[in-house]
Structure formats: C-alpha cells, structure tokens
Design goal:
single chain, OB fold (Dihydrolipoamide Acetyltransferase, E2P), Chloramphenicol Acetyltransferase, 22% strand, globular, alpha+beta, four-stranded antiparallel beta sheet, 35% helix, 19 strands
C-alpha cells in the first residue's frame, strides 16, 4: 500500500510551504529518511526526508506550487512498484472533467430521448460511467487548492477570538489575509484593527509609489519564496513593535586571553571550535533570567513571560536568512552552547534543519560583526520583544588607568553590542540594565570551559 508524502509544518505559525525542487523522479528508488524534496517557507529552506523506503510512484505537487501543510504532495510505493497509471492521464481528464460535471447535473440522461434512435449509440459512449470514474482522481488531485485554502483559513480562524472575528466581519475583512502576531500566529485585536486602518489609508499611500524604469542593462529577477516572506515579516515587525535601540561598548580582552589559551585544546578535546559567541550566549541567558521582560512575548493585551530561554541565532545564507533556535540555552555550558551553535549553523547552510529547530525562540542574537560591521539595529523577530546585534570584535586603542590611577592609552579587544527592544513592553531603563549585566559578565569573563 502506498505511503503518502505530506507537506510538513515547518514552524508553529506556518500554514503552507512551497516545493522548490524534487530530488527524486517518479520511478526512482528511495530509502527511508533519504532527502526527497526541498521546500521553502518564511522560516526555512529545507530538504524533506522520505517517510518510507520504496519507489516514488506519484508526484502530485510540482516545483513552484504552494500548498497547505498536511497536503499530500506525492506517494511512495513498494520497492520496484511501477508508477501509478493516472500519472500520465492526469492531464487528459482535466478538460474532460467539465463534460462529466455537466452530464452529472441531469441533462445528460435526458439528452438521448431528444435525439433520433440512430444517433443514440454515439452519445451513449461518452455518457457511460467509465470516463467519469477516472475523473474523480484528478478532482482529488486538483482539489488541494480549494481544500488547502479552506484549511489555511480554518487554521487562522482558530487562532483568533470571537471578538476578532466579529471585528473582521463588521469591516468585511477576510481574516485569512490578516497577519497574526499573537502566540502561534494567532490574530489579535490589535492585528485586525491595524489591518482595518491600513486598508483605509492604502489608496492614499499607494499614489506616490513609483517604480524606476528598467534600463537596458538591468536584470529583473523574481523574489524567492524565502525573500518574499522575509520582506513580509520584517515590514510586519516594524509595524507591530515600537523599535528602540541601545548600544554598549564591551571590552572582550579577558575573553580573548581565555580563548587564546584554551582554543586549541578545546577543539582537540571536544571537536568543536571555541568562538566568542558561546560566551555572549551565556552572558545573555544569565541576564534574561534576571530581566524576564526581555524573555517575553506580547499576546494582545497580555504579556507572556517564557519559562525557558530559547535563543534564536540568525544565520546568513547565500539565499536569505534563517534563525534556528538553541532550546534550553540557559541550561547549557559553554561547550554545550558551542556545539549547538556550530551544529545548527552547519545544518542551516546544508538545508538539514528539522521543523522544531526553527521555532519557539524567545530571544534572538544576530552577528553581523562577522562581516566587519561595527554595530547595527536589527529588526525584532515576532512575537519576541528584543534582539541583540553583535558587532565586530577587534583590537582598538582605548583610555585605561595605569597602576597609579593615571589615564593612559591601551590596546584592548573591543566590540559593540546593540539591543533592539520593543518599547511597548520594555522600558529604556530595563533594557540598559539588561545590557549592563551582559557587559559586566563578558568583561569579568568568569566562565567555566569544563
């Protein structure tokens, strides 16, 4: 019996995905957990493994198509099984589907009496049951778009309160088109009210928009699925959160000495590199425990303080940006954080991340400093309320005190940390206290590498 291959859910708030490539063709032998196809969502580009061993007998969703989660996209049969016959006729019944649909509405049975007896055998053949029967298969195949839309709308509706649905109904808004910022993508009262207000302002805002004419040497390329989704999320985050930034300068000199002394033995013993990031991660987790408002989410008019610290870590890819999550980061040692970070980054670049590894973040750290940036003001990952940007870490001349208490110039390993926070929940004083705690932890460098 064939095993259904379904579109997986790649995140709590993800209701659909786009198939970008099939890695196997119909008729190919596949092993269980062998990469079968690639998908793209706003959270991740990933290779999806086969749910069973056998032969790929059907591909129901072609590359480029977007379908709802849990949609059947293909089927795996027994090893050696031939591809399903409907695979070729699947195109043919489509035009014929209109005819059976018309015949099934009653006029078909009445047609023969209206015709001369000599012609009755001819209409009898197309009116026979066999053609409509195979048409049922394509109907199921083609139905995913309608049923998928229904499924998506139903999922979004279940994430909204009766009040939200009432506001949507009163304003003629299809709630399926409203981006939810609540927990698990739930559409909140603020979401629906903002959507309604934007709708009223849209015509005026649309007028000044212009597009620069393309020159002869310009190249016009469509945005990838991931790029489009990133664009939507970033704009939505700026519209949702009251972004404020604060920047601190950090002296990493003690950590630099600690790394220099231990990095070779650390790698030999543990098989993973010792970078600055595990130290920053641990400093952040201790500060989040002391200042829980930064390890929180806003759900409508409620504040959700998260019991676990799940650190999102932004990873730059050639085709976009992804944020895998280190779950339970507050319970990990420097070694545990180093292993988790290096493993997630590597698997993000090779499209090997699992769905649960890109969801559930409570606070995010991004490191543009690896490319030389002094600091930036990153955009908050919804529904979180803060994100920390790590600037480049380098030696700089700074003013220091000598043994006699006199000012002098010294060379120190320095870097900037920039925190973007949501002023709806986090006040500037709390944000700066949080940053001061992170700074002190890093500068004292009392870390255990055991």
């Amino acid at each position: 019996m064939a095993t259904d291959v379904i579109m997986p859910q790649m995140g709590e708030s993800i209701a659909e995905g786009t198939i970008t490539k099939w890695l196997k063709n119909v008729g190919d032998i596949v092993g269980r957990d062998e990469p079968l196809f690639e998908i793209s969502t706003d959270k991740v580009d990933a290779e999806i493994p086969s749910p069973a061993a056998g032969t790929l007998v059907e591909i129901l969703v072609k590359p480029g198509d977007t379908v709802a989660i849990n949609t059947i996209v293909g089927r795996i049969g027994d090893a050696g099984e031939k591809p399903a016959a409907p695979a070729a006729p699947a195109e043919a019944p489509a035009p014929a589907a209109k005819a059976p649909a018309t015949e099934a509405t009653v006029p078909a049975p009445e047609a023969p009496p209206a015709q001369p007896p000599a012609k009755s055998p001819t209409p009898a053949a197309p009116a026979a049951a066999p053609p409509p029967a195979p048409a049922a298969a394509p109907a199921v195949q083609g139905a995913p778009s309608a049923s998928n839309l229904s499924s998506i709308e139903e999922r979004i509706r279940t994430r909204s309160s009766p009040l939200v649905r009432k506001i949507a109904q009163e304003n003629g808004v299809d709630i399926a088109h409203v981006e939810g910022t609540g927990i698990a993508g739930r559409v909140t009262k603020n979401d629906i009210l903002s959507f309604v207000e934007r709708g009223k302002a849209e015509p005026a805002a649309a007028r000044p928009a212009t597009t620069a004419p393309a020159g002869a040497r310009d190249q016009i390329l469509p945005m990838s699925v991931m790029r489009r989704k990133i664009a939507e999320r970033m704009v939505e985050s700026k519209r949702t959160s009251a972004h404020v930034a604060t920047v601190f300068s950090v002296d990493y000199s003690n950590i630099a000495r600690l790394r220099q002394k231990n990095k070779d033995s650390f790698f030999e013993k543990n098989g993973t590199k010792l970078t600055y990031m595990p130290f920053i991660f641990q400093a952040v987790t201790t500060a989040l425990k002391k200042y829980p408002d930064l390890n929180a989410s806003i759900d409508g008019e409620d504040v959700v303080h998260h019991g676990d610290v799940n650190l999102g870590m932004a990873v730059a890819l050639d085709w976009g940006l992804i944020v895998p999550v280190i779950k339970g980061a507050d319970e990990k040692s420097i070694l545990g954080l180093a292993r988790a970070a290096n493993d997630l980054a590597e698997r993000a670049r090779t499209k090997k991340l699992k769905p649960e590894e890109v969801t559930g973040g409570t606070f995010t750290v991004t490191n543009p400093g690896v490319f030389g940036s002094l600091f930036g003001t990153p955009i908050i990952v919804q529904p979180q309320v803060a994100i920390l940007g790590v600037g480049t870490i380098e030696k700089r001349p700074v003013v220091v005190e000598d043994a006699d208490g006199q000012d002098a110039l010294g060379i120190r390993t320095m870097g900037y940390l920039a925190l973007s926070f949501d002023h709806r929940l986090v006040d500037g004083a709390v944000a700066d206290q949080f940053m001061a705690h992170v700074k002190k932890t890093l500068e004292e460098a009392r870390f255990s590498l055991a």
